[in-house]
Amino acid sequence: MRDFLKSAFGRSKPKQLRILPQDVTIEIGQGQTLLEAALANGIAYPHDCTVGTCASCKTRLKQGRVREATPFGYTLSKDELDAGYILACQAFPKDELTVVEIDSSAGDLMPAEKYTANIIATEPLTHDILRVTVQTDRAVSYAAGQYANLRKAGGGRARSYSFANAPQRKGRTLLEFYIRKVPGGEFTESLFGGELKGVSLEMEAPLGTFHLRAGDSHMVCIAGGSGLAPLVSILEHARGNRIKRDCTLLFGARTQADLYQLDAIGSIASNWQGDFRFIPVLSDEPLDSDWKGARGLVTDHIAPGFCEGGEGYLCGPPLMIDAAIASLAKHGIPLEKVFYDKFTDSRDR
Ligand code: FES
Description:
Keywords: 2Fe-2S, Iron, Iron-sulfur, Metal-binding, Monooxygenase, Oxidoreductase. The protein is built from 8 helices and 19 strands. With 349 residues, it is an alpha/beta fold.
């Protein structure tokens, strides 16, 4: 019977995927996700984790319906879902033609390579954040905003940390990361205990698609906790290249003791080409302290005055990012102008 049906109706036509803005159409193989089909056809489709947690493959679905391998809502905000975004790595096509639009600027990013990295210095920035400097076996090229996966040589789970210093044209061998201690976390407990100094790490980099887009609109940068690292890298890089844009940097921390790199931010501000506004916001600072600055959630301080016509650059925990996306949209920055790196402190991707 099965053979009869096959011969009577033939094999079903392969499903097609059309990718914009490149306007490339490819076939989607049996059982392939949209991302798998694109990569199998040599298309530089933005991606990283491939398991639905990093949002690097976030894509706007323009036509067709897809089945979710894991619910997109675990990673994408309600605003993103309402705007028609999907995760290509978790999407199987349902219709004959699926049309998607990707962020084409991600295609210009360098492919990841493997390096050996030795921790040569650690310096406390706060009671639970270390600045960690590693030296690599050769120069690493990356875009400001991207991150690296680090793991102990010979095994262990990789941890993801954003580059905190600006890239250099020919790559860098000395790289800085801001690493928050995760209580009970094997990697950071060893790091904070000094046991990893001089130890060889395996590093894979560059990863992620978070980077500064070309343009001259107001940059609204929002960082939470150790999420300051990629924004310092982006801002240092922009300052070094004398990029002329107005910028507002909102930095959310719990108390004054959790603020760090204020000198580095001050130096960026004083050499910035354009207006630069820095707004630190404290959520748990004692009311009777000498703090005269902003209080509450960092996202409560997103204001229309610096949003209109701007672009959002966000790095922090998922709740902060989701709240920031909603608030930026309310104040005039649409989703397609918001770029982010969403992480948990353990940076499990
Ligand atoms: S590559 Fe799809 S969510 Fe990470």
